[in-house]
Amino acid sequence: MKTYYLDNNATTPLAEAVWRKMEPFLKSEYGNPSSLHHRGRGPAKALRESRAMTAALLGAADEREIIFTSCGSESNNAAILSALATAPEKRRIVTSAVEHSSIRKLCRFLAKKGYDVVEVGVSAQGFLLIDELRRVLDDKTAIVSLMLANNETGALFPIDEIGALVKERGALFHVDAVQAVGKYLLNVKQSPVDFLSLSAHKLYGPKGVGALYVRQGTPFQPFLMGGGQERGRRAGTENVAGIVGLGAACELALSDLPKEIERLKKLRASFEETLCSQFHAVVNGDLTRRLPTTSNLRFPGMDAEAFMMALDQRGVCVSSGSACMSGSPEPSHVLKAMGLTDEEANSSLRFSFGRFTTEHDIQDVVKIIRETLDYFKEVDRGSRLNSNKAAL
Ligand code: PLP
Hints:
The two termini are 43 Å apart. It contains twelve helices and twelve strands. The chain is globular. The chain has two domains: 143 residues, Aspartate Aminotransferase, domain 1 (Alpha-Beta Complex); 237 residues, Aspartate Aminotransferase, domain 2. 43% of the residues lie in helices and 13% in strands. By secondary structure, the chain is an alpha/beta fold. The model has no long low-confidence stretch (mean pLDDT 95). The strands form three sheets. Strands 2-8-7-6-5-3-4 form a seven-stranded mixed β-sheet, sandwiched between helices. Strands 9-10-12 form a three-stranded antiparallel β-sheet. A two-stranded parallel sheet has the order 1-11. Pyridoxal-5'-phosphate binds next to helix 3.
């Protein structure tokens, strides 16, 4: 059975070019990049090149602004904990109702420790309520942590506008750009952003490696302490092969990002047009200001979990709710924050496209969706007939 992988927001396949660059660092280039002898030199050079490539994709002013981490979740934790440690007199953390669990759970933990955590809401389109943000920002705010692109709907927050407000209040601004990096043109040098998180496995790199951008001059307190790696900002022998993979993934994104964005936009437009017109699907959220990779669709009256499983049996991988939350019976907190009822949220699926999704795949998936919906109708008709017979 062919796999149709439409869950690229959960993770992306490793690109062949990325793997080729990583392979030597899993085998022959085994030296520790901190070693002064010749075995350390190759890995140390590879780290420098990956740092430069990562900085280039973000539009950072200086490579030293990049700290390699183990994942997006670590980057998120490191940014918030650093901001609290470097401004202990400030006790407020501002975030939103639609953040990833790596922010939500950390903030819940910090609230229990006595921090004042404020969650700003979103509109029905999934956009941050800027007036509400303006109201809750005060000079006791240590950090504002918001995502650039939502992992479930793709909705984009205007980080330049938000950052300007945050800076007026003298707080630090952290952007969780894990879903956006490699799929959206960034220029952090020109954005009022202090910290920005990314993760290699969302842009065709390996799992278990991420980065935190820290603007030059931003105070930083590491939360992983030990050796002097990453200029003393993140201890631990570096995951060299992983970091090489991240650098190669950034290089790949840099090579064709504007073209790839346009291709994905077209692909998604035709997919959504067909599903909305033929199968009465409804797009959750705004149609314009969102990542080109993401299509969050509601199928009124449908049990999304059952639909997802039926599609999986036919080779199509999609997601109901965010991957990290799947298995949990709770309706998506993102869709609920946008005002959807539990029933509406539970009838929604996330399709996320990527570099390896072709037009042909989309045509096949549409056919599979049609067959699956017909099958559900049949089953439904059958069970109604049976219950009518039982009532006679
Ligand atoms: N932030 C967002 C918006 C995400 O979508 C994810 C992963 O799904 C993360 C953070 C966590 O990244 P990682 O899986 O690398 O820890």
